[in-house]
């Protein structure tokens, strides 16, 4: 039975490691608001009205954001004022 217990422990550790590498920690609204330079109330408005496409995750009554979604949001919102062709 000791072999089985070790095997189960190894499987559990492997599963935990796989989950941690696949799922990054979720950010709370305070963290995202600080990253974006807006208030949490603004995030609430965006979420409730659908004004901006910033995906979120509901965990019970809590709202969380994936860091990758926040980064993608920033990439989509990044604009360049450069309108001409680059000089050689």
How would you explain this protein's 3D organization?
There is one protein chain. The mean pLDDT is 84. The chain has a three-stranded antiparallel β-sheet with strand order 1-3-2. The radius of gyration is 20 Å and the shape is flat. The chain contains four helices and three strands. The chain is 57% helix and 11% strand. The protein is mainly alpha-helical and 88 residues long.
Secondary-structure-derived class: mainly alpha
Distance between the termini: 72 Å
Percent in strands: 5-15%
Approximate helicity band: 55-70%
The shape, in one word, is flat
Overall average pLDDT = 84
Structure at a glance:
With 88 residues, the protein is mainly alpha-helical.
Notable traits:
mainly alpha, 88 residues, 57% helix, single chain, 11% strand, 4 helices, flat
List the SSEs and their pairings.
Layout: H1 2-22, E1 26-27, H2 29-36, H3 40-49, E2 57-59, E3 62-66, H4 67-77
Antiparallel strand pairs: 1-3, 2-3
């Amino acid at each position: 039975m000791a072999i089985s217990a070790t095997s189960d422990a190894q499987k559990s550790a492997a599963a935990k490691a796989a989950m941690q590498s696949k799922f990054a920690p979720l950010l709370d609204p305070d963290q995202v608001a600080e990253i974006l330079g807006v208030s949490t109330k603004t995030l609430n408005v965006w979420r409730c009205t659908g004004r901006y496409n910033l995906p979120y995750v509901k965990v019970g009554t809590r709202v969380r954001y994936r860091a990758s979604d926040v980064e993608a949001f920033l990439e989509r919102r990044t604009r360049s004022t450069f309108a001409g062709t680059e000089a050689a």
